[in-house]
Amino acid sequence: MPRALPRNDVRQYEDLRDEWWRPNGLFVTLHWIAAARAALIPPATREGAVLVDLACGAGLLAPHVEGYRHVGVDLVTPSLEQAREHGVTPVRADVTRVPLADGCADVVSAGEILEHVDDPAGVVAEACRLLRPGGTLVIDTINATAAARFVVVTVGERVPGGAPPGIHDPSLFVRPSVIVEAAARAGVDLTVTGLRPSARQMLRWLITRRGAVRMVPSRSTAVLYQAVGTKKKN
Q1: Which of 101, 177, 202, 221 could be stapled to 197 by a disulfide with Cβ–Cβ 3.0 to 4.6 Å?
Q2: In this predicted structure, what is the pLDDT of residue 158?
Q3: Phi (first) and psi of residue 177, to 5 degrees
Q4: How many CA atoms lie within 13 A of 169 on its CB side?
């Protein structure tokens, strides 16, 4: 049984290590979001192209991307061990201080991490530092709204298939303006789009617990949103 830990405590991921790849496990929604994130990643255009995956977890993005050297950054050793099994080169590090060179990445992914850190703008700046000119930044996170707190925490932590209880601290949820401004300062203009599950597929999954649920674009960014942009060339 998982330990009683404070909200957003990183040690929860050690206790939940067996959930990452368990079919319809507690992290099933992260699989759906990873597939939507991968759809924003362009095909690799050169040999040796590098994808840096910040807070990679157990490598959920890996099955959806090809042609890149996939480097995963995370603090949780059991997660990194599983990521390695899925072809990810693991780097144990804090996402605010990544031990990789400036401009080393063709793509940087920061998926479902900004709502877990005290300084989301700092993480975005670090992601932009790693990105080469012309490279692509892909982000998804949870908005700092009452709607998001209700959907993700009040309801989500009580509905089977929702977020594991205590995994989020709603005080850390992030307004789009925070990441857009941080990225712009680093030369990346972001386009923000809302993201939601397909209503029909979500209903089917809640009833049957079968099949994946496709995440689709939404006009509303009130709960979950994506952002994508290209770093300006000098």
Answers
A1: 202
A2: 86
A3: -60, -30
A4: 14
Cβ contacts of 75 within 8 Å, gap of 6 or more: 10, 92, 93, 94
Structure tokens at 18: 């067996």
Q: Say what the pLDDT of residue 90 is.
A: 98
Whether 182 contacts 174, CB under 8 Å: no
Can you tell me the distance from the alpha carbon of 94 to that of 57, in angstroms, rounded to the nearest whole number?
Answer: 13
Q: Which residue numbers in the chain have pLDDT < 70?
A: 1-2, 161
Predicted local confidence at residue 2, as pLDDT: 58
Residue 207: strand, helix, or coil: helix
CB 196 within 8 A of CB 204: no
Indicate if the alpha-carbon torsion angle 78, 53, 6, 31 is positive or negative.
Answer: negative
Q: Taking the CB of residue 72, how many other CB atoms lie within 10 A of it? A: 28
Q: Which of 34, 17, 31 is nearest to 161 (CA)?
A: 31
Q: Which residues contact 171 (CB under 8 A, 6 or more apart)?
A: none
Is 40 in a helix, a strand, or coil?
Answer: coil
67 contact partners, CB below 8 Å, separation of at least 6: 43, 44, 49
Other C-beta atoms closer than 10 Å to the C-beta of 68 total 20
